[in-house]
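Quick one: sequence plus zinc ion SMILES, need structure tokens.
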Amino acid sequence: MSKTWSGGCQCGAVRYELLERPTGAHICHCRMCQKAFGSFFAPLVGLPRAKFRVTRGEMSNFHSSADVQRGFCKACGTPLTFDDLTEDRISVSIGSLDEHSAFMPENQYGLESREPWFNEITKIPAYDSGEGAEGVTAYAARLPGFAATNRQHPDHDTKDWPPKR
Ligand SMILES: [Zn+2]
Ligand SMILES: [Zn+2]
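Reply:
Sure thing.
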């Protein structure tokens, strides 16, 4: 059996499967992708549409233009796909893939909208969760509570979701 690649939304209502390794990982800085992802850019990787299938729930779609629909989970809002209907390819959001770290972007698009400070972003101070410039923060005390009540779907397929208690 050949390897499949799985992914889905934060709440787990929508899960999908890729029947081959997607290619062409990129980030798109265009203003439409920024808005659709609520972020500085959209991280995407694509494959033939016939190799993509939803395995749990149903994706909702927003036609951001006549030819393009953007798939998302209507229960939690996670952006899942970019689908140019004039092509036989579909792209998935890299962050929604279970093995997201396997897809380093190879190109950047939408350069005209790239945030002017984008190339500086790796130089700003960086901390683990619960740490800040002053050291460990009050937020750290809340981390066990967040972990204990975490409703995010794990990075693998599950038989039942939400888990049966
Ligand atoms: Zn969801
Ligand atoms: Zn874009």
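The radius of gyration is 18 Å. The first helix runs from residue 31 to 37.
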